[in-house]
Amino acid sequence: MPSVDARPSTFTFELDNVALLVIDMQRDFLLPGGFGESLGNDVSQLSRVIEPLSALMAAWRAQGLPIIHTREGHQPDLSDCPPSKLARGGIGEQGAFGRILIRGEYGHDIVDELAPLAGEPVVDKPGKGAFYATELQELLEKDNIQKLVVTGVTTEVCVHTTVREANDRGYDCLVPADCVGSYFPEFQRVGLEMIAAQGGIFGWVADSPTVIAALQEQK
Ligand code: C5J
What we know:
Rossmann fold; alpha/beta; binds dicarbonimidic diamide; Cysteine hydrolase
């Protein structure tokens, strides 16, 4: 059984009950010129996640373990976008990579380096959390997944919301600190601390090389 040195305590999982969740590694959040940068954000804070996450995904795939990707976005007619979200601007407007966070647009899709492989589910979500108004829970239940390694962007928004949703649904979540990113270094630090605080109130935090080493010990 892989055993990961994590905070606040060791995180263990069975190879047949774990999935890697890759949250919203979309061009519009990560690429220079995209939606994230147009809001004044420093996208290099997110792109530094690509390399370690790519290595984790490779190790994960080498073990034949499941990866589930998510994308935040909306139908072209915006019928699934709450008026309150729309009113804050951006969504559906023309951006450098097509209409912002609209399904089917170039900017809405996942960065080339982390492209899903055939057969890996891609869950399209209208909200921040990956469980809200999606098929995610059904996918997890189908394969009896009970533990999640949660990666992606942004730490304090979609990663945190998803970890909290998962925690309330009974899933144990491990977050590799170098595989999640925030535009704001302070939010990154505090976001990770909040997960592991109070005896792991939302989950566990580790580094991806530790997770990879634990996986490779299984060979
Ligand atoms: C945001 C996300 N930040 N994926 N989305 O709007 O965290």
